[in-house]
UniProtKB/TrEMBL annotation:
Originating organism: Phrynosoma platyrhinos (Desert horned lizard)
InterPro entries: AB_hydrolase_fold, Lipase, Lipase_LIPH, Lipase_N, Lipo_Lipase, PLAT/LH2_dom, PLAT/LH2_dom_sf, TAG_lipase
Tagged with keyword Signal: yes
Superkingdom as given in the UniProt entry: Eukaryota
Name of the protein in question: Lipoprotein lipase
UniProt keyword terms in alphabetical order: Calcium, Cell membrane, Chylomicron, Disulfide bond, Extracellular matrix, Glycoprotein, Heparin-binding, Hydrolase, Lipid degradation, Lipid metabolism, Membrane, Metal-binding, Nitration, Secreted, Signal, VLDL
Family: Belongs to the AB hydrolase superfamily. Lipase family.
Residue ranges constituting the PLAT domain according to the UniProt record: 326-449
EC code(s) of this entry: 3.1.1.34
Length: 464
């Protein structure tokens, strides 16, 4: 039992720090055995810190798991531990074991996050008081229910923890909860959150929908992640020999962890996220600006931006690691002598650059109209380098559709404007003929990078 000296109203008093009620275990894992709890640090037992070879001069990562069906650690735990040691070899990676409480009926386990948070806070306070270990070196990483346990821990420490990362914090029982019982921006000096499975109505969504950090990032809109369809997930289950049969539910939820792991392993190619008021505006390509901290790195090397309101950010990813993609805003103005308006139209766009090409990227415009400018977002999985040529193609509807049976609609396009999110470059691509016609079901139309303005090229074309 630790006695802490306190000053109260001018008198010196002693406060007992009671460790008897701690239910959680704190395992300091090693780079050699990332999947085994070989050494436990026991709060109140000073010798356990030395026995586990705790590094007092380096930073400490505290990993807090979430609810579990099996009552065992999930496969992501050693993967995250390994990635943390790969990036920070001299650090301490501590895994909090609350498996016995996390494998109960979900509402019961959710209620126990208060106890787990209190345990973590007691552990951190003890390290600071007994060994002078600065909380500036402490980074809590909580997944699902573990994110809220991390938040409670941060609210109970005597000094502010440096950082908490919420990995798809749990939604049920927390969507409408008060800040005191869930993760919130006040729980650490900096709180960043990844939301990867926010489907369904609030409070029934697996992941929490509301922003709960200083920066809240919603990959692919936060609702569903690439590679997590029923067929793809069943293939994954078959490949793992049914070791994780609940992967269908976990796929998008757990993607938050793997995105963070990606940020640890691929530091030279950070994933970019972009500030936006809504995912609908992001889908239109309207939010690819990096001015005034409007873009940021996802994961470990996020730039700390604190504002009065939570910053919501969006991005697209691949289905597998490395998850980074390259974002582009494309703007086209459609000309025509006849007024045409159509909805849900399928298109293909191909990009050709100095390094590679990315062909036949499909996208759908909700509505297109004559004499109107349209903006949309596309992304590529490969780095094409400097963009040189853009091709557009307007696809046919299904064979059974009779929408355009008696006519073939077309639009004139003079130029295509493109903004690259990752490089922030703005480029203009012109029709070699001054004005090209995009016909539904027709051939691709090519636009080349303009060395001069398209207006000049168009004037030259019409003079001829």
């Amino acid at each position: 039992m630790l006695y802490r000296v306190c000053i109260s109203k001018g008198a010196i008093t002693e406060k007992k720090r009671d460790f008897s009620g701690i239910k959680s275990k704190f395992s300091l894992r090693t780079p050699e055995k990332t999947d085994e709890d070989t050494c436990l640090i026991v709060p109140g037992q000073d010798t356990s810190v030395a026995q586990c070879n705790f590094n007092h001069t380096s930073k400490t990562f505290v990993v807090i798991h979430g609810w579990t069906v099996t009552g065992m650690y999930e496969s992501w735990v050693p993967k995250l531990v390994k990635a943390l040691y790969t990036r920070e070899p001299d650090s301490n990676v501590i895994v909090v074991d609350w498996l016995a409480l996390a494998s109960l009926h979900y509402p019961v386990s959710a209620a126990y996050t208060k106890l787990v948070g209190k345990d973590v806070a007691t552990f951190v306070n003890w390290m600071e008081e007994q060994f002078g270990y600065s909380l500036d070196k402490v980074h809590l990483l909580g997944y699902s229910l573990g994110a809220h346990a991390a938040g409670i821990a941060g609210s109970l420490t005597d000094k502010k923890i440096n950082r908490i990362t919420g990995l798809d914090p749990a939604g049920p029982r927390f969507e409408y909860a008060e800040e005191s019982v869930r993760l919130s921006p006040d729980d650490a000096v900096f709180v960043d959150v990844l939301h990867t499975y926010t489907r369904g109505t609030p409070d029934l969504s697996i992941g929490i929908q509301k922003p709960v950090g200083h920066i809240d990032i919603y990959p692919n809109g936060g609702g569903f992640q690439p590679g997590c369809t029923f067929v793809e997930t069943m293939q994954l289950v078959a490949m793992s020999w049914l070791q994780e049969p609940d992967q269908l539910v976990k796929c998008s939820h757990e993607r938050s962890i793997h995105l963070f792991i990606d940020s640890l392993l691929y530091q030279k190619e950070p994933i970019m996220a972009y500030r936006c008021n809504s995912k609908e505006a992001f889908e239109r390509g309207l939010c690819l600006s990096c001015r005034k901290n409007r873009c940021n790195n996802l994961g470990y090397k996020v730039n700390r931006v604190r504002s009065k309101r939570s910053v919501k950010m969006y991005l697209k990813t691949r289905a597998q690691m490395p998850y980074k993609v390259f974002h582009y805003q494309v703007k086209i103005h459609l000309f025509g002598n006849v007024s045409i308006t159509k909805s849900s139209q399928p298109f293909l766009i191909s990009l050709y650059g100095t390094k590679k090409e990315s062909e036949n990227i499909d996208f759908v415009l909700p509505e297109i109209s004559t004499n109107k400018t349209h903006s949309f977002l596309i992304y590529t999985e490969v780095d094409i380098g400097e963009l040189l040529i853009v091709k557009l193609q307007w696809e046919k509807d299904s064979f059974l559709s009779l929408t355009d049976w008696w006519s073939t609609p077309e639009f004139g396009i003079q130029r295509v404007r493109v903004k690259a999110g990752e490089t922030q470059k703005k480029l203009v691509f012109c029709s070699p003929n001054g004005l090209s016609y995009l016909t539904k079901g027709g051939k691709p139309v090519e636009f080349v990078r303009a060395l001069t303005s398209c207006e000049i090229l168009v004037l030259e074309f019409f003079k001829e």
